[in-house]
Amino acid sequence: MVAIFYHPDAFQTKNRKLMGRNAAGESFLKGFFKHSTPTEDKSISVFAPDSNFITDFEASVRECGRTDSILPISNETITKLSDASILYYPGPDIAQQARYRMHHKFEWGICGITHTTSSAGAMDAITSWITCPVQPWDAVICTSNAVKKNVETVLQAEVDFLQERLGIAKLILPQLPVIPLGVDTQDFQFTAQQRSEARQKIAANEDTVVILYVGRLSFHAKAHPLAMYQALEAATNITGKKLILLECGWHANEHIESAYSVAAKSAGPSITCITLDGRNPVDRSTAWASADIFCSLSDNIQETFGIVPVEAMAAGLPLVVSDWDGYKDTVRDGIDGFRIPTMAPRPGLAGDLAYRHALNIDTYDMYCGYSSSLVALHSQKLSKAFIELIQSPELRYKMGEAGKSRAIETYDWQVIIPRYQELWDEQTKIRLASRENNLGRKSNNHKPATSSEWPARLDPTISFSNYPTKLLDSDTLLKLADSTADLALNKLSELISLELVKYASFIFPTKGEIDIILTTAESFLPEPAPASELVRNLQTSRKPYGLRGLVWLCKLGILEFS
Fold first, then answer.
1. How many CB atoms lie within 10 A of CB 164?
2. pLDDT digit string (tens) for 224-272?
3. Backbone CA torsion sign across 311, 313, 315, 319
């Protein structure tokens, strides 16, 4: 069983600034609802930071046809995560969740996932694993082998620094399994009539070859389009074919939109360029249904997996992609399409870019843009790939069918969700085995593998213990301020009705506990009683709360200390 950490931003594509992680999250959730094995009690657990998000989550469940009951979990009921066994968190920043878990004896596992790893936030999240209380039964899914290597490189650099700085010797890290993102391949199947209608919308006849790019239209943060424009211009001049380039995405602003338009006219004057709004489902369907060839020449460090080539394979399109990051895993060169070689400077030649970004001299966008400017594609092989596909409908069909089979067999959520569930089962097995080992060690007075204290969120009675004059302990002597418990209870009932008192009702002992404490204190009059005696008759689990409640009663003048 798993609990999904739900925030709409991670799982919805309604945002006008549609990002890849939004699309991936929405697709995962639909795939999970459609293909996950139902629990015995037919329930789905959701951990939401805002109770209003539960309604959104349930709507998503119902839209997918699931009738499971929804089990909401909040920070106040976080212990319910132990029933779920695994918390799925839609990002790599699992440190905070690991710290929340510390106070509950690590009774569940956490599973995160990588998206962009080039941002300062993502890299800080990755390095934080070394010093936060992650466990061997936690995991962060890497969506490609390329991003796993990137994560390991960042981790190793941080380990080297901490070893030199602090001499660290022990290292506990989450597992880093490689599981790709998935798609619902049926969403990309189109009939001949749908294809015909889509091509009519963009004025493409049967002799026209339509090349499709899908993704954010950002030359600095996604894929620089110049090489694509140049190669398509060369291809149309050699083949004599009319080409339409569909760019299905969105521009962040008018400046970027103008830059695309000017570049396309300058580098590809013979090509008809049409822009469709990738945030609009109708436009997306038109794009996928009308295309003959898919192209994505990612050259950006923000990319980690790249879901659109998999979607293109599901649509039965041959691909022309850069040999870059996750594309190396998904697209088989010469089978599903062509992977165009890329080139970047050798390691160690762009430290100034990282330094300028770290000092906020350059924005993150500029950092990504500068890095992208140092990545080149093999222009001759790119042009050749387009020419071959444009000239040969048979090759387009052959590669498209190969890609479609690969998408169905390897990347459909029907295949990917069971891999998630297998991982979650394995995490639980490791956690339970570790708990058994720790129980065995307790008899030998060994300390648990990790302290349950969160250093930056220490119990204030620990972190500020030097502030007061004295500290209440079991031997502290306390005395009833009034002559009887009844008088004390009457006074207390008036006091706790005051706004400046009742706001803190969370820390009050229960009415029954207060009765026991005050009655016991009365029995010792006229002498004071040790604090341990005043809470002796409370339930064992409540005695710590009763002890601190004695200080509260002193604060209100119900008890006195010497």
1. 9
2. 999 999 999 999 999 999 999 999 999 999 999 999 999 999 999 999 9
3. positive
| pLDDT value at 447 more than 50 | no
Checking if the pLDDT of 303 tops 80, the result is yes
Side chain identity, residue 270: S
If DSSP states are collapsed to H, E and C, what string results for 140-201?
A: EEECCHHHHHHHHHHHHHHHHHHHHHHCCCCCCCCECCECCCCECHHHHCCCHHHHHHHHHH
Residue 398, number of CB atoms within 10 A of its CB: 14
pLDDT at residue 449, rounded to an integer: 46
**For 195-233, how does the pLDDT look when each residue is reduced to its tens digit (9 = 90+)?**
999 999 999 999 999 999 999 999 998 999 999 999 999
Distances (CA, A) of 34 to 40, 61, 87, 184: 16, 9, 19, 10
Q: Output the pLDDT for position 305.
A: 92
Please tell me the predicted confidence (pLDDT) of residue 347: 86
Burial class (CB in 10 A: 0-12, 13-18, 19+), 169: exposed
Q: Kindly report the CA angle at 62 between 312 and 138, in degrees rounded to 5?
A: 70
Measured CA to CA, the distance from residue 334 to residue 116 in angstroms comes to 28
pLDDT in tens, 80-132: 999 999 999 999 999 999 999 988 877 899 999 998 899 999 999 999 999 99
Q: With pLDDT > 90 as the criterion, what percentage of the chain qualifies?
A: 79
Rounded Cα distance between 323 and 401, Å, is 21
Could you tell me where the DSSP H helices lie in 315-412? 327-330, 351-358, 364-372, 379-391, 393-406
Contact (CB, 8 A) for 40 and 68: no
Give dist(CA 249, CA 89) in Å, integer. Answer: 27
What is residue 355's DSSP assignment? H
Cβ neighbours of residue 543 closer than 8 Å, sequence gap 6 or more: 535
**Residue 273: both structure tokens together:** 């360029």
* Helix/strand/coil for 376: strand
Helix (H) or strand (E) holding 423: helix 413-442
List Cβ neighbours of 119 (8 Å cut-off, separation of 6 or more): 302, 364
Helix (H) or strand (E) holding 530: strand 529-530
Residue 461 in this model has a pLDDT that exceeds 90: no
Closest CA to 139 of 104, 89, 81: 89
Buried b (16+ CB within 10 A) or exposed e, 75-102: eeebebbeebbbbbbbbbbbbebbbbbb
Tokens at 222, concatenated: 């996604």
Q: What is the pLDDT of residue 233?
A: 97
The pLDDT value given to residue 445: 43
